[in-house]
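Supplementary material to the annual report.
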Amino acid sequence: MTQPLVMVVEDDPDLRELMTVTLTNSGHRTVEAADGESALAKFHAHAPNLVLLDISLGPHTIDGLEVCRRIRRDSDVPVIFLTTHGEDIDQIIGFSTGADDYLIKPVNHRVLLARITAVLRRKEGSRRTAEATRLGEQGVDIDLNARTVTVNDQLVDLTRIQFDLLAALAENPTRVLTREQLVERVWGEWYGNNHHLDVHLSRLRQRIAASGGPRVAHVVRGVGFRFTS
Amino acid sequence: MIDDVAPEVAQLIADRRDGVARTAAADLRQATPHELPDLMHRLAGKLGVFGHHSAGDAARRLMIDLRDGTPAAEVPGRVAEIVSLLDPGPGGQS
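Predicted assembly:
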């Protein structure tokens, strides 16, 4: 797996090198920038996974707040501000520009690495959630946010239970869910009534098939159900 | 804190420590009153990282006091105190 690329934007050469060594030593790839303009150019050239951004970049360049604003025009890449300021108002200004976190210098190196890891993990979780809002295959498309199902681009009318059953099976189409697992996912607890589940699954299959879709909720004898055969 | 970091990072800090102190002391001696706020801001975020914790704390305090309007008469003595904390000779505490 490719290691995250972190862009270090810091005008002080000693601090910039120290952060770069700290990051590379912990397995990150790095790209450096000493002022606001080169930061924006390198951001677009290298597409880093995270930006460590000093707010004060000297008198002859745009500051870190402006760099962050311009990055936010077309990117949601995580940005962590570095600054010597510590007042609340500075933090409010920092976050209003779209920063993900804020560290007060001098920064402990382990704290720096921990914050970077946490922000990257949070961003990865958001990305996966966004990807997981659409499920399905074999012509069945499930939009979890809109709670709609289309088969071959035709909207299929499902009940809440039918939708939840289909979504549970589609989350991992190759995995077999037992009756207990399926019921717990949809109703919250297993109450032991197989007939109830079978009726809902049967009607779900009929609705999908009537729209020209595949046979869903395939029975794996003695085990449970899979999305399709 | 040098003992809180990986060996490569600790080595870089050790290599730069004296140079950072010399440059900071020179900058402090040459700074005009107008330049002091920006200089304190820079040193407050840097000196502690390179092991000059006392000098970094003193720079941070002066940075805040300059922003809050500390009496001008106090400033030269405060600057001299930071320089002395950076001096590794007798009396230096960096």
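The helical segments of chain B are 7-30, 36-44, 53-68, 75-86.
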